């Protein structure tokens, strides 16, 4: 390094490198300038100066200098390395890899560069390259543990676990007999467990078990070893031993459901939800009555049988299960029982039991058939559970009745108000739900959960401003927007994005959705540090687990929601692009007198000048701040100075040139990570149809068909597709003809339209799904699309739909309408926006208002949208008690501050 | 017949963050609507205003006003004292009163505790007598909107040795 310089300058050059490593950037800069005074064209010095400046927040200058340095000295590995580091600091890993490779071409055995390269390859999952780099590193430094381990991991990631095992065995061969020393026992133990997991992954179960048993003494994670042992035995079909292992594990922790699963499997009892035969149930019953005797205090032993027991024995089991929990007051009891509702008949049994409890507790203060006096709170929790029960069964009237009785009984229990709010939300009154959540919040101002729940409900009721105020009660210094973003508070971003979307504020909505997307990019980024850290600390199992988690990161629900919603925004932007500022101005100017125009122009000019001045001032301030922070900084990982958000309302996001192109970016991520979700392909279809990429749309259609043969949305897409394609002008180009012939060939894949006209296909679709409102809606919409003159028939299809009422045997309670509120809103939308029949729409509205009395959308009589209803009064009251009442402020009571407590 | 499940009773101060609990209690226990003054007094009384918990549930409260008598002595006025109806006859009120008296005994500044009880509230009168409160006088037309409008003034003097200092 710096070899082309005379000794004095060479020393100075070393000083630059050292200063860079120790983060004494000013010193390094001074040294660099000293060299450059004599040798202004010295490439490596220029590059190093650039790198140093990069750390002092002069990005542009840094790139300029590094590029210039490289140009002056293309043969220097230092210059290339520096260029790579610069790219790495900007997270441009692909470019960085290229630079490192060039550097290695000049200096192939440079350990530092090889290590940097390997980290980037791991991050970018360039697995082949990663293996090679690790091989080179190990060859160069065979006595270094970390290189052995990294080499093994590289092979493992490259899907060659058996090779990874060989490497670890070879590595073990280099160790002394009495290894490990006391201070490295954990690291060694993790290595062994990692090796065992590799053997298992390579399919060599016998060997994995053998290795485990041989090394048991050296493994410090005793419980982990036992768990692995049990699962290996199970996989090897050595059931007797597996059973013993799982029984031992249950002895350690009887509440771990995985042990229960293992025990059942080793006894040959396979449990698929709801499909077990009589035989299996008997076996399970015996097993659990044994276990219950053995572990009388275990909750899991009592809870698990509820899943498999037949109605008869279920009744007594669940009865026995619930009593102590109601007595103790376990607010989460309902979520514990929730999964039972999908099993036929069980909901009904629960209802009978709970109603029995209620009447007995009211009459005698004890459970049925018992003389023991219960504490008064038992009735309260029973009512609470009943409320949730009826809510789950969609009997909102009854649910409310029970919750109100509970509130009357004990008005201080906060869960009751939360629950009541949730019932209103399910019944379609978001406003009342928000008001109740706010009341719940007011009862404990120090509870962050209550605050968050309230914020979410407010957003669902589109009270964005209030929601922001409420959220900021719990953020640092009330700087809530940045704070919530920094905290990666995604539920908030999604909920407020949804609210903006509903209100038609696409820019603000997009801003929120894209923020969520950014969090995921950050999470991918976050793994970078672990590539070195985990190998050094030998937490290999956790490391590989983390890498695999990262590979599927984008299939997470929050990302999925954000991407879907962002795509919807872009589609809407494409369908009705926003007016540009110039166009708007023109529209405003039209019809103005010339004098007025002149005035306006002058005013605008003045404003622009003022804005410019202000901007310049702000910039100056920012730079000052940046400078001072860079002076203070120097701690590792110090954050870049915060730049003010230049686009708080997402106006710039609205001006995107190619909304479909943006949408496609997110679609790709969805297709890669959420291909099993129908929605992904529905959106793909929408995008490709607008782009007129018919083959891609066809592909999306075929994927839809695989996931949702019966779905009304798929039906809509199929008919729309072939209708559009059939009405295209005949293709003029060869490729166009080719596309058409492919589509013709593929037409046979779609059974529903085979040998039928599209109209006929629609009719048979309707006939096949006569009883489903959603299907009828699709059929009506499609009919109107194909034959606009048959509008009255389409209206008729919708209006003649009959809403049946549940018989009460299943999940839904007796007498509850079978139609969902969402579907009914959708139909209303079809009436008013697609068919544009406002009379029919208002008829539909009043029909639905009867079905959903709490729905604000349909102005139900009991909803807060209807003047004079209970909810209306309640919401008004809650709003009136907003500031300056003591309830709204978070522990800030100005009136009381002057009072001193006398003691 | 027996009550096998003893539920623990605990106390907590009234603070600005849980003030709403007190409001909720008063709304159902008392026929009177209390104003901001009441709540600021209750808050200022510090250790003399308490919420009582039955398990995790807030079921009752005592709210006091501390009235200064001299530089170092005070009188305690019980503004409200009540337990939610379903939780009465479980001894919770007695525990709460016992707790407050304990606090008073530990605090040397309190000379006496007093309160008003409606004349027809036999139950309450018996309860306070049990704790050593005595009727000092009957005040006619104390209440404006409930029947009967008369009340008793109940007082409990805290016997303590005052170190050579006269009280007013």
Write up this protein.
The complex is a heterodimer of chains A (903) and B (168). With 903 residues, chain A is mainly alpha-helical. Chain A has a domain at 7-159: Tetratricopeptide repeat domain (Serine Threonine Protein Phosphatase 5, Tetratricopeptide repeat). Chain A is built from 46 helices and no strands. In chain A, helix 23 (414-427) runs antiparallel to helix 24. The radius of gyration of chain A is 34 Å and the shape is globular. The termini of chain A are far apart. Mean pLDDT of chain A is 87; it is low at 628-641 and 883-903. Chain B has 168 residues and is α+β, with helices and mostly antiparallel strands. Chain B has a single domain (9-157), classed as 3-Layer(aba) Sandwich (Aminopeptidase). Chain B has helices at residues 19-29, 36-44, 92-106, 122-130, and strands spanning 9-13, 50-54, 57-68, 74-83, 110-118, 134-139, 151-157. In chain B, strands 1-2-3-4-5-7-6 form a 7-stranded mixed beta sheet, with helices on both faces. The radius of gyration of chain B is 16 Å and the shape is globular. The model of chain B is unreliable at 163-168 (pLDDT under 50). The chains are: A mainly alpha (903), B alpha+beta (168). Chains A and B meet through helix 21 of A and helix 1, helix 2 and strand 3 of B.
Descriptive terms for the model:
heterodimer; A: 903 residues; mainly alpha; Serine Threonine Protein Phosphatase 5, Tetratricopeptide repeat; disordered C terminus; B: 168 residues; alpha+beta; Aminopeptidase; seven-stranded mixed sheet; 32% strand; TPR_rpt (chain A); repeat (chain A); TPR-like_helical_dom_sf (chain A)
